[in-house]
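ingest -> validate -> predict -> emit
validate: passed (alphabet ok, no gaps, 506 aa)
predict: started
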Amino acid sequence: MPKVIKSISVAVKECQLDHYKGDVLIAGLFEGTKRVPKSLTGMDKSTGQSVGNLLKLGDFKGKANETAVLYNSKANFGRIILVGLGDKKKIELNTLRQAAGTVVRLMSKMDVTQVGMAIHADEAIKLKPELMGQAISEGVMMGRYDYLDYMPVDKDEKTGPMKVTLVEPDARVAMELKKGCKIGLILAQGQTQTRMLANTPGNEINPPELGREAQRLARKFGLKCKVFNDKQLAEMKMNAILAVGQGSINKPRLIMLEYVGRKGKKASPDVVLVGKAITFDSGGISIKPSLNMETMKYDKSGGCSVMGVMAAVSQLKLGINVTALIPAAENMPGYSSYRPGDIIRTYSGKTVEVQNTDAEGRLILCDALAYGAQMKPKAIVDMATLTGAVVVALGQHHAGLFGNNDSLMGKVKDASKASGEPMWIMPIGGAYLEMMRSKMADLKNVCGREGGASTAASFLSEFVGDVPWAHIDIAAVADTPEEKPYRSSGATGYAVRAVLEYLRSF
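emit:
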């Protein structure tokens, strides 16, 4: 098990690589590199050609996220860590993001506190320095995080605080790197906030407790917060949220967070964010199989992502108004659970026939989306672990992106590419929506396996009116059982940085 890094910071220092003083210096090399790049020759010479000798031996191939540790006693730093950057022709920001996460996870197994990082330094990298600084700092924070809240940690298993310094000899480039690092750290902290909440088990976080977490977050970051309890939801006729949560002793909530970046006359929010937060999903009466049911604590990931985004929005001091709506419920079987065959009159007035109580996410979202649409925002973006069908369609490599506005979806997709959190645009409406029509009500909440991600998104489209809307189905990517070289297992915080990139460009 890696050691626990107590804390980590990222800074930029203007100096020659061979003048850096610390425990370790990290450099990146492309796949197939035969000679030491010009940017690393001074450093290599100061270490007795340790990098050059390794390249001659051919033991380091430079494949993406491959690592090698070299020890030396001649330089100001006792170790060199090489990290592979893969194919030079395919270099992108996510290459650097993953490389930074990879070396941080490797260093968590070492006793190092002063870390110099120069993975951006190869002259063949033609990316903007500010964006490189942002991506590297995001990767550092992503690699640092491990969910160990319930694991006993001995003193000898702790390290840090760790100081990571991006080393750059050019003053102009160093200034740009510093700008990027400032942004990257805020975005990464929002993602870490999300991962912490999403990883927390259902016995620790239920809908009322998630509401209290939102209130604590609001106090910390200067947001406005209101939490509607079950009695208030009944008065508001939020019947879909209430139905999903009525089988649990932990009653549902609707959490509203507000960030005001445009001072002066009160105006509609520019963007409404909506996040599904089923704090635990048993499936209700349509109960899930027991295998892997423990992962259903991650069914709150959409709501947790929205909270992480709002924390970062406040720190970024964006000049827009953003309102977040997080419908929270616990979907449990019980004597008071909602049933297949029930017909619910939702907040919008539309009626929905329940055919499967395990299709609950779209029910809590439909009330929140309709409520948000009444605010007349310029855009609505929702995030939800909505369907298993999107996992079948896209695997664990893309989130599904749906919506009613091509321009908005294009902007969100561009933001997803910049953040290294890819999304794939998928179809809605038309025949998919017809599949969701009921003989007993306006809509039904399921219609079979075929096109399940698109039919679910089509259902949601009925509750946003003519407001531009994008729906991000993160069911395939919100959590992972496998550790990556650059990231721990568990919650990923997927789409937090992508949505923040969208908001920054708004």
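The CA atoms of residues 62 and 84 lie 4 Å apart.
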